[in-house]
Specification:
36% of the residues lie in helices and 20% in strands. By secondary structure, the chain is α/β, with parallel strands linked by helices.
Length: 288
């Protein structure tokens, strides 16, 4: 198992991000930025990052500002939103990764939110490939059952009341998603209430940003995802109109298991059935 090296990455606006780099023992075949789902800290992705390092990839993980080890100071005082996470945090991480592995093909693995925000990241045109995992639009009426019914309560009652009262979203106390800056939660709420998600909520500029992504894109989605339906997945990836795409929808039966779900892909017991069979070939393709 590769041992991660801690890094502190400073963004253009002076925020300090906690990051880890998992380096291979030999030559770097590809440099991979692993980008988290909403409310998920980088430690969740360490098993996959370590495994990829053992396969010759240099992998970086990180926590968005205000989350995980990048949370510094009172959360109610932090002014940011999802677009800021993408532009400033992911942008800084992509630059840092390129410096760590000069000349290696740059790849992106985005879990859920991490696959939605590629268009807003400066320099995304450098990506040799992006792999989205369990990524969809988030529009609540298309969410998988039973999340669809829970989402109504979250977006129309819990989120607006909690953020107005506390000054941020206290997800840890509510046992929902995790603590999030108010600007992030407010923007995410607007996106999830719009049939066209970020494109509908933010307008023509965001539609054009999705259309500007031209890096090859691979979508890995799962039939038993408790959050993202096939409609969510197709809707979001439909905005990437200029990117060559491969969409793989995998059922638990395809790999002989009972459950994968929204988070299962990143668990170590899928190393051979999902990581080696479905992910590694896509990253290896960038080195040819």
């Amino acid at each position: 198992m590769a041992r991660p090296g801690a890094r502190e990455i400073v963004t253009d606006d002076g925020q300090r991000l906690a990051a880890r780099v998992f380096a291979p023992d030999g030559p770097v075949k590809a440099a991979v930025l692993m980008v988290s789902a909403m409310g998920v800290t980088q430690s969740f992705y360490a098993p996959l990052a370590s495994w990829l390092a053992a396969e010759g990839c240099l992998v970086a993980t990180f926590d968005y500002r205000g989350t995980g080890q990048s949370r510094r100071g009172p959360l109610r005082e932090l002014e940011t939103d999802i677009l800021g996470w993408a532009r400033l945090d992911c942008g800084a991480m992509l630059d840092a990764l390129a410096c760590e592995a000069p000349g290696a093909p740059l790849c992106w693995i985005g879990h859920s939110l991490g696959g939605q925000i590629i268009p807003f990241v400066p320099g995304h045109g450098r990506l040799a490939k992006a792999v989205t995992v369990a990524t969809g639009s988030g529009y609540w009426r298309e969410n998988a059952v039973p999340l669809k019914y829970y989402s109504w309560w979250l977006w129309y009652v819990v989120a607006p009341l909690a953020t107005a009262t506390v000054g941020y979203f206290p997800g840890r106390r509510l046992r929902k998603v995790g603590d999030l800056p108010r600007g992030v939660m407010d923007q995410w709420r607007r996106w999830c209430l719009d049939p066209e998600y970020a494109v509908g909520a933010e307008g023509a500029l965001v539609r054009a940003q999705y259309a500007a992504v031209r890096s090859p894109l691979v979508s890995l989605s799962f039939t038993d995802d408790e959050f993202m339906s096939a409609e969510n997945t197709d809707s979001l990836h439909g905005f990437y109109v200029s990117a060559p795409q491969v969409r793989k929808r995998i059922s638990p039966a395809d790999i002989g298991v009972r459950r994968i779900g929204h988070f299962g892909f990143f668990r170590p017991h899928f190393a051979e059935s999902l990581w080696r069979q479905h992910l590694l070939p896509e990253l290896a393709d960038t080195t040819r």
